[in-house]
Amino acid sequence: MLRIDQEIHDAIVAHAKKDHPDEACGVVAGPEGSDTPTRFVPMVNAASSPTFYEFDSHDLLALYKDMDVRDEEPVVVYHSHTATEAYPSRTDIGLAMEPQAHYVLVSTREHGNNEGPVEFRSYRIVDGEVTEEEVVVAAPEKS
Ligand SMILES: [Zn+2]
Predict the structure, then answer these.
(1) What is the whole-number distance in angstroms between the Cα of residue 53 and the centre of ligand 1?
(2) How many domains does the chain have?
(3) What is the pLDDT along the chain (143 residues), one digit of tens a residue?
């Protein structure tokens, strides 16, 4: 199960809408071992493609260094599909390197008129095997 704050959920959807019809991608980092995504990090799709995404290698290295300093890990790795359903492609499965991460797929395929719904689904991808999981969107905690 992925538990994610409304605010972060909405930020991912907004990023996907903004980059449509290209795929959008990014990470939500969180404290190591917490399984809690807390820090939204939108990334540049270096491929600028409607059918493929690729993290910019320089940005990705910088992000990993930054997470290391903060004792964080990538809790959520997200990207959008702009013409197909929110399900990992064969390429996505091949690129999934983080067995502890929640792979979030957003689909903006119904979004052509800027009003359609956006699918938001989450998966575990371990050893090439895809398992969909429940997504719980939670109101931000009051402090
Ligand atoms: Zn994909």
Answers:
(1) 7
(2) 1
(3) 999 999 999 999 999 999 999 999 999 999 999 999 999 999 999 999 999 999 999 999 999 999 999 999 999 999 999 999 999 999 999 999 899 999 999 999 987 666 778 899 999 999 999 999 999 999 866 66
Cα 93 to ligand 1 centre (Å): 8
The CATH code of the domain that includes 54 is: 3.40.140.10
Give the structural domain span for 22.
Answer: 2-120
pTM above 0.85, yes or no: yes
Does the N-terminal peptide bond of residue 21 adopt cis geometry, omega within 30 degrees of 0? yes
Instruction: Round to whole Å and give the CA distance between 67 and 75.
Output: 11
Separation CA 126–CA 62 (nearest Å)? 25
68 falls within a domain? yes
Collect residues with CB below 5 Å from ion ligand 1. 89, 92
